[in-house]
Batch of 3 targets.
Target 1
Amino acid sequence: MKKEKTDDELVHLRRKIGLLPAVCFIIGTVVGSGIFIAPKGVLVNSGSVGLSLLVWALCGVLSMFGGLCYAELGTSFTKSGGQYTYLLETLGPLPAFLRLWVDVLFFKPSSDAYVSLGFGRYVVEPFFAPCAAPKELITVVSILAFTFVVAVNCWSVNMTSRTQVALTFIKIFALVLIIVPGVIALVKGKTEHLQNGFEVDSITLERLPLAFYNGLFAYSGWANLNFVTEEVINPNRNIPLAIIFSMVTVTVFYVLVNVAYYTMMSPAELLMSDAVAVTFANRALQGLALVIPVLVALSCLGGLNGSFFGSTRMLFVGAREGQWPPIFSMIHVRRHIPLPAILLQYPLVVLMIITGEIYELVTFGSFAGWFFYSLTTLGMLIHRYRFPHHPRPFKVPLAIGLSFTVVCFFIVGLSMYSDPWNTGKSCVLTLTGVPVYFLTVYRFQLPNKLKSIFNYYSRQLQILLEVVQQEIQTY
C-alpha cells in the first residue's frame, strides 16, 4: 500500500506572509531609491515648488486608487502572478503574455540592475569623495548586493519576509531622520523656499506627464503584494488592509520628506544635486552625514528584495499557465520556492549591471508599465460588467476604478506627445512578443528531435535543482 503524503510532505507554495510582512513588502518595495533621487525629476518637469508638492500628493492618491483596484483583483482572483494573472483572466492570453514577455526579459532585469547600481554607488562613493569612484568597484558591489538578494530568496519565504521587515524599518528610520530636522526648521520659520511656490511662468504643461512619471516611479511597488497572493495568509483580509495602510503611510512620508528638502535647499540647489538626500544630510545632519548614504543603500536593498520576490512569482505562474517552459513552474521539494524562476532572473540582471545599458530601458519602461496598469483595471471593469455575480470579497467603488483607468490612459497618451521617441521604442519592444506568442504559445510545434532534446535537458535540470510540479492546488 502506498502511504499518502501529509500536508507537510506535499510540495506546494505555503501561506507564510502575514499582515506585517505584507505591509513591509509593499512599503519596502515602494520606498527604494526613488524618494532620494526622484525629487529632482519632479521639480524640473513641474516647474515650481508648489506644483511639485502637489504632484507628489496626487501621485500618492493615484497610486492609492490603483492599489484599491488591485485589492479587488487580488481578492477576486486568488492566483499569484499579479498583473499577468488579471490580464489573463479578464482580457485573454495575448495581453498577459506580452506583459510577461517585456517584464521578465527587459523591464524587471533593467529595473533591478538600476537599483543594484544605486546600492553600489551609495556604498562606494563616500569612500572616494570628492573624487570619482571606480566604476568597476561599483559594478562588483552591485553584483554582490543582488547576489545576496537572490541567495535570501533561494533560502526560504520566511527568510525573505524577515529580511524585508528589517530593511523596511531601517528605511522608515531614514525617512524620519530627514523629516524631523525639516519640521523643526519649518516651525522655526525657515519657509523662504516654500513661499510663492506656484510660479506660473515656469510651468510647462507638456512636461507635466514626465513629472508624474518621476513621482510615480518613486511610488512604484504598490502592486507588489498581488504577485504572491497564494503565499499570503487570509488574503481577502490582509491584501486590502496592507495596500490601504501602506499607501497612506508612504504618501504622508513622501510629502513630508519633500517639504523637509525645501526647508534646507532652494529649488536651484535641489536641481544641481544628483543625490538629494545626501545634500540634505550635509546641511541638516552634519554629524550624521555619513549615515544617510548607508541608509539609502539599505533602502535600495529592501526595494530590490521586494521587487525580485514578486517578479519571480509572475514567471512561475506564467509557466504554470503554459506560456513559458514548464521547468519554471516547478518548486523546490524542501524549501517550497519556485527555484528555477528565481535563478533565471540572476544572469539577466548581472548582465545588465555589467553592461550598464539600463537607463533607457528604465525610462521607457514606465510607459509600458502604466499602459499595462491601464489595461488591467480596464479588464477589471469589463469583467465586473460581464460577470456581475463573480465573488468579490473586496469591491472598489466604480468611480475609483474609472478614475484610475482614465487618468492612466491620459498620462500614457500625453507621454506619447511629450516623449514620442522613448514611448515608440517601448511599443516596439512590447510588440516583439506578438510573433513569439503565435510561434511558441498559440501554435507551438517543435520537430520531434528538438522536442526530445528539450525534454532531456529539462529533466536533467529538474534533477539538478531538485524541483517538481506543485502537488496540490493553492488557489
Target 2
Amino acid sequence: MLFTIAAILIALWLLGFVVFKVSGALIHLLLIIAVVVGLIQLFHGRRM
C-alpha cells in the first residue's frame, strides 16, 4: 500500500519537473512527506 502511494508520488514528482513548474513545489512536499512516513514505518515496524 505504502509502496504504491510512494510510486504514484514519484511519478507525479517527475511529471511536475517536466510539465508543471508551479505545482512542482507541492509535489516535492508530498514526496518528502511520503519518505518521512515510510521511514517512520520502517523504524517502528508494522503493527497489526
Target 3
Amino acid sequence: MKNFTTQYEIAKQNANEFMRKGQITQYFEALLEMNKYKRLMVAVVAN
C-alpha cells in the first residue's frame, strides 16, 4: 500500500510538471498512471 501511495504521488508531481511545461500528451499519460495507482489502492483497501 505504501508503495502505491508513493508511486501515486510521483505520478501526481509528474502530471503537474508536464502541465506547467505544456506537454499535454505526457500530462494525460501521467493522469492515467495516477488513475491506475488509485484503483490499486482502492482494491487493496477493499480486500
